[in-house]
Amino acid sequence: MLLCILMVRYMPIIIQMDPVVAGGCASFSYVSAMSHDAELSPGPDVFRAVTRSFLIATSDEMIEPLEKLILSDPLCRSLVDNVSSGLHGVISAASLPFSLTSESINKRRFNQFYTAARIRGLTFEDNGNLSKEQDILAFERARIEMENFRNSKDGSNFIANTIVLELSRALSSRDIGAAAAELMNQALSSTWSIFENFASSFIVEWINSDPRRASKVLNCPGLKSYFGKFSIDLDTINENLFDLTKSMGSVLFKGKRLDNINVIRSAISALLSNLNVSKIIGNDLWLLNQRRHLLVHKRGLIDREYLSRTGDKMNIGDSIIVTSDDIIKYILAVRQAVIAIVEAAEKEKEISEE
């Protein structure tokens, strides 16, 4: 009886509040339903499906090692900054469903605290209108309650479980499932493009900065067929004003593509004479290159050539499946390779200047 009296007395006041609060009250039943779902911890199958389909990560921890590099060479610093910026974009885009879902859940929960704090601040004399000071106080109370909630075990579990459950429900939609898969495909292609741009720029500009380095790649056994019988025509020399001291790399690779992982590995290994670099540009980057090629040229449909190259256990005609684990693995492989290359380059430059 008392509850009915209170509802009759205060419901008109609540409805008269601003739209944010009214919306928060209107969402109580929905949030309560969400709370019930979140209390049921997602099973391993649900968790696995969500974490495979959506990238749940932040860019800071994955990019931090690149940003912390201390580099004296301007070329290396510039190239690493470009890689950091590119990877940040890939991670931000690929993790957008997670970020938006997390933000939505946190806002809904905060609105609960805020609405409750405003209601508690009302008196019979207020007639549903809080003063500015009362509203500020209610907001601050809600902020503190939300912070405590997020930092508590129950609160953090609630938020995590709700995110997983909402993303799982989204996956049940055919359109969203297809969009999530396409997002992973785009992340894979972009990750390779970032490494390819870094590697090709490094190779060309490293030779441009010292034309004597050209002989290292021209004499590399793994690049003999790539260059063929190399010669420089008069028109090219004329275009460079008969001075190749700052453009030998550009001339050497003019009209040639640097998008093959084997060519990239051979060229960088020859330039830096570093076995560690050759090993780091290894299987993960090779597979990234193969899968990116399949996505770009075959729309991700498995063909006989791809199977013979990679040994993947899939059927011809199947669509390639890219998971968030793959994206993280490839991003880390790119990061590791970039760090190894610029550190080896800096070391070689120091030795040459002694």
Descriptive overview:
The protein is mostly helical and 354 residues long. The protein has two domains: 1-56 and 95-172, no CATH class; 58-94 and 174-354, no CATH class. 75% of the residues lie in helices and 0% in strands. The protein is built from 19 helices and no strands. The protein has helices at residues 2-15, 19-26, 28-39, 44-53, 59-67, 74-94, 96-121, 132-151, 153-171, 174-208, 214-218, 224-227, 234-239, 248-252, 261-272, 275-280, 283-298, 304-310, 324-353. It is elongated and about 90 Å long. The model is unreliable at 1-38 (pLDDT under 50).
Question: What is the succession of H and E elements?
Answer: HHHHHHHHHHHHHHHHHHH
The figure for the number of domains is 2
Shape: elongated
Class by SSE composition:
mainly alpha
As a percent range, the share of strand residues is under 5%
Question: Count of DSSP E strands?
Answer: 0
Radius of gyration: 29 Å
Our measurement of the CA-to-CA distance between the termini, rounded to an integer number of angstroms, reads: 90 Å
Taking the sheet with the most strands, its summary is:
none
> What quaternary form is this?
single chain
Mean pLDDT: 85
How many helices does DSSP assign? 19
Helix content: over 70%
Spans of 5+ residues with little confidence (pLDDT < 50)? 1-38
In short:
This is RiboL-PSP-HEPN domain-containing protein. The chain has about 350 residues and is mostly helical.
